[in-house]
Amino acid sequence: MKNSMIQTNGNISSSKSVVQLESVSKWYGNFRCLDNVKFNVMPGERIVVCGPSGSGKSTLIRCINGIEGHDKGIVRVAGYELTRDRSTLDRVRLEVGMVFQQFNLFPNLTVLENCTIALQKVKKMSKRDAVELAEFYLARVHLPHLADRYPDQLSGGQQQRVAIARALCMKPRVMLFDEPTAALDPEMVREVLDVMTEVANEGMTMIVVTHEIGFARSVASRVVFMDAGRIVESASPTEFFDAPKSDRARTFLQQVIRH
Amino acid sequence: MSIKTIPKDSQVFLPLDEQCAPLVKPVSSESRRIKRDIVCGAILLLLGAFALFGKFEISGWAGISYKALLGTLLVFGNWLIIRRTPFRFAVVLVWLELALLFVLFCSSFDFEPGYALQKAKSILGFELKDGFLQGAALTLFICAASIALAMVLALLAALAKLFGDGFTYGIASFYISFFRGTPLLLQILIIYLGLPQAGLTIPAVPAGILALALNYGAYMAEIFRGGITAIPRGQWEAADALALGKMQVLRWIVLPQSLRLIVPATGNQFIMMLKDSALVSAMGVWEMMYLARAIGRADFRNMEMLITAALIYWIMSAILEGCQARLERRYSRGIRSSVPARTGGK
């Protein structure tokens, strides 16, 4: 397996991989939500993380940009080792874009301001450059006409696309998606997945927590299956969906596909 | 093929007018109810007016009960009629009626509007003595200064309580606990009379401003803290993911959203402060309340002066209320009201 080779040759891969987790563990009180996780992402990889509720998928990707701290192990992103130190955190976060299940747009700012705020306040861009860049990415998610609206005036699908544009504006090296379509009405899932597919086709490194099997099959280069805080399987989508190796993955897939 | 055909003459559906009957009925009964309300209301009002102008003199408990009954009749009759008028019209009418009631109350102790108007000028503080503000002008000055200072204190204390280390948290929690836990009058006296003993003499007006600001800052700190904690965690996470710093998140994302929650409560505090500033008169500061009582006492016209002062306080509060409503509208841009629509009325 390609993946296992990368993991055993940790030293070589660490210089190449964008995201590298080495025996990372995390506890919520007594509950161990991440259990000795090893995880490597190479540039250009599109990884879909799936698994039952409470298996640690969200926690895993939230540890990658330090929104949640890990308790044990090493997380390296774009060459920086993640600590609780503010300056390293901010440096890592500049390399990692994140899209949330609940969109988390800033309701007091317009769509355009949502996209420009970090460019202006963090990257210290001039307003004109920031607006130009934001407009470019709003056009990329097919929403250039909504720049002056407030988020609450948008549909869920539009809000999520704005959230994707907001993250892309920072020109990250990795994009994290935490169940980006789980809070959407069924008819809006498509438009968000389409935008995500376009982003993937442009070569963006992506880690996506999702249960959208169609998206995983067509876009993912690798599917990672988690259960009880561990990575149980890591395989190509056809391998994983057609012939899952673990019993746990098999029952999970049956439950997901059944409905 | 065994589809049952319905005989042509059988009644599957009710005739049209019978179908519509349940729909039409409530409408007609509604208009009947309106008519009933207006007729009953008019009768009650006539009864009340007759009793009011009839000058029946009944003494003792019977008299009190008679007046209570009369009042109830008038209020109920009014309600029956006014609730059937358009919403805005009804509100204005009720205000006018209550104002009329107030005037009637004033006339019961031969209120002299001429005297009140003449003295209102000095209560308002248009006549300067000793070269410094007084009356309502001084009240406004004290409040404006206290409000500005209180907001700074409140924001600092709220931030210290939320994000501070042990040292700043300790200071903030002690400050809030002490100034919420003791009476304002006591704080004014301690600052004005107690601090000089410690070698720090503060003139009366700055002492009043300081006391009001410290007291209201403590309350407002809790309002600010509540407003900040009410912002969903996702907002912080999204801002964190964009590498915005904590102060940047507060300044550009969290506080602007909190303001929507903070403004109504803070406006309430300001209106309270406007009137609590009367306590500063305990230090002999010539603010409005002090002047009103001094003048009223000298001319044996206490009620006149008190009512005049009340009206001025009220007008100033109303102006503040207006500002608060404007701010509330401004900070709730793009957010729908959570209260269900009013029944019957715009």
Give an overview of the whole structure.
The complex is a heterodimer of chains A (259) and B (346). With 259 residues, chain A is an alpha/beta fold. Chain A has one domain (2-258): 3-Layer(aba) Sandwich (Rossmann fold), CATH 3.40.50.300. Chain A is 43% helix and 23% strand. Chain A has 11 helices and 10 strands. Chain A has helices at residues 2-8, 10-16, 57-64, 86-95, 111-121, 127-140, 156-169, 186-201, 213-219, 237-242, 247-258; strands at 19-28, 31-41, 46-50, 72-77, 80-81, 96-99, 174-178, 205-209, 222-227, 230-235. The longest helix of chain A is centred in the last third of the chain and has 16 residues, at 186-201. Chain A is globular. Residues 1-14 of chain A have low confidence and may be disordered. With 346 residues, chain B is an all-alpha fold. Chain B has 2 domains: 17-108, no CATH class; 135-331, MetI-like (MetI-like fold). In chain B, α5 crosses α8 (204-229). The radius of gyration of chain B is 30 Å and the shape is flat. The mean pLDDT of chain B is 84. Classes of the chains: A alpha/beta (259), B mainly alpha (346). The A-B interface holds A 65-67, 89-90, 93-94, 96-98, 100, 102, 104-109, 117-118, 121-122, 150-153, 163, 166-167, 170 and B 232, 234-235, 237-245, 248, 252-253, 256-257, 333-336.
What's this entry about, in short?
Chain A is an alpha/beta fold and 259 residues long. Chain A has helices spanning 2-8, 10-16, 57-64, 86-95, 111-121, 127-140, 156-169, 186-201, 213-219, 237-242, 247-258; strands at 19-28, 31-41, 46-50, 72-77, 80-81, 96-99, 174-178, 205-209, 222-227, 230-235.
